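Render Molybdopterin-dependent oxidoreductase in 3D.
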Amino acid sequence: MAQRIGRTPPPPGPFRPGFWRSPIRGPWLTSVFGLLLLVGIPVLFVTGMLSYAAYNPDLGPLNDQTPDKGLLGFYLFDWPTHPYWLYRLTQGVHVTLGVVLVPVLLAKLWSVIPKLFEWLPVRTVAHGLERLSLLMLVGGVIFEFVTGILNVQLYYVFPGSFYTLHFYGAWVFIAAFVVHVCLRLGRMTRALRSRSLATELRTDLAHTRPEPADPDGLVPIAPAPPTMTRRGAVGVVGAGSVLLLVVTAGQSIGGWLRSTALLAPHNRDPGSGPNGFQINKTAASVGVLPAHVGPNWRLEVHGNGPTLVLTREQLLAMRQHAAVLPIACVEGWSTPDQHWSGLRLADLGAMAGLPDAGSVLVESVQPPGPYSSVVLRGNQIHDPRSLLALRVNGADLSLDHGYPARIIVPANPGVNNTKWVHRLTFRT
């Protein structure tokens, strides 16, 4: 029976050994792209895990609705407020690098596509485990890149929370990635040493030849005449990555590059004036109406003592403090530094009878939904730059920027800088 199965001919199409005929496909080119991913993907994973930690997910379901993190949350720590640009850096690197690596990933998948159609699909238990790890690797990387890019482009089409899906997907993918690297690192090293990069970059089309036959079946058994050199393949991938860098990086780097960030949906012209900088969602889009923040608006401050109920005029009459901070969001975009003024959260905590508050629940007039409330840590409360902001750049907040009051905390993800605040509950 085993012999009959082993002699089963492959079905027509891509399962046939002679179907794949590109003469430049082989272990060396695959290893070049693999080396780039070997460097880039760990950086993506680490910055992604840091992004997750920045939400302070172990403070409760308001910050994180990912159930049963268990051992996967072993690394979580109190997200710092110093330096103030930390989240802007880590998330900017995460999103920009993820986009830039797309051409490399596609080239790597193209280079190994014969392996995905290997026949027989499973020959032994060991071969089956290797195939399973390959399925998890390819499926995981496609899932992570697709969901990440959809989120960056604001296409919320996920069957559930993006954060939950992306978090668990990242762990599944990185586990498969580690297994794959352990299995293939030796072969990749030998393949890279088999040819000189400088020589390949000098080889023209007339002298492009297939690599020697390899045990993995990447080199075609009946290669077609070359239509592109390996130099050309590397160049096309490199040019694609550079182009994506140019049209993406400006949303987090800022400066003159901001005008080239064509793939950044939040990088459109935000208008002029003191409130002329990017926003995530408008007041109307989340159901905040002028009536919710009109003359009857009050700020409630709860803590260890009687509840304080304050009008905006009373808040403005108190001692005001200033901070110069950007807003940075999970989609990778950030604003330039803005000049905020308002009341320190630490001072409000002291007024509530908790000068050493360990956390504060921030609630918005926004109808219940994601990020209509959030919990901030004690270190965030007590940073002197953490404000209940009333004004920005010398003017009152606009409605879309959170009028009459919003949170601004250094190194805090943008969605945790709650807008339209109406209640603060300080806790021990």
